[in-house]
Write a structure and sequence with these properties.
The complex is a heterodimer. Chain A is mainly β. Helix content of chain A is 0%, strand content 56%. By secondary structure, chain B is an all-beta fold. In chain B, strands 2, 4, 5, 6, 9, 10 and 11 form a 7-stranded mixed sheet that branches. A 4-stranded antiparallel sheet of chain B has the order 1-3-8-7, with no helix packed on it. Chain B is globular and about 35 Å long. Chain B starts with a strand and ends with a strand. The chains are: A mainly beta, B mainly beta. At the A-B interface, strand 4, strand 5 and strand 10 of A face strand 4, strand 5 and strand 10 of B.
Chain lengths: 110, 114
Amino acid sequence: QKEVEQDPGPLSVPEGAIVSLNCTYSNSAFQYFMWYRQYSRKGPELLMYTYSSGNKEDGRFTAQVDKSSKYISLFIRDSQPSDSATYLCATLNQGGKLIFGQGTELSVKP
Amino acid sequence: GAGVSQSPSNKVTEKGKDVELRCDPISGHTALYWYRQSLGQGLEFLIYFQGNSAPDKSGLPSDRFSAERTGGSVSTLTIQRTQQEDSAVYLCASSLDRGGTEAFFGQGTRLTVV
């Protein structure tokens, strides 16, 4: 079993839709959870990170962690064509290693 | 520099040749990561440095792969006797400390083995 699982998609939505991206993880000891965005032929860039359970909001983006079900989510409100990218969830193991999901390819159609 | 710098940005090499990929992390960042990303795939962990030491090199695919970091700064990933399956984008990231919660990535080196 992979330590972090993510549906690779692709996911296609119309402009203005609410997007929900999700990951599951295997180790209940993980505490930090990150979301990265990667545009084509670019390196990933950090969108936001959360610690333990709960929500964190940044503009149109909300990250949510449910430790009881080992489930992490990223919601994008009022999605824009410029949000079209691959979104990667990640977590940090106790040794300091960043572990990534496979990434979900998102396309927002005008 | 302002961000993580990787060189070269593109490298085409013949099968069997050795290649060296370089990563210049953000100044002051003690943690440095190497990942590999094949077409349409996620990030495959290769190795992680804290300072000059590598607490986790579990992701190196074979003994043809090695990496070093000197002066707590620049890192070099070396692939010996390259194979076609080594073709991928090699990404480097750095973070301020071993926590890695805010890791910054370079643009990657696109390696093609022909």
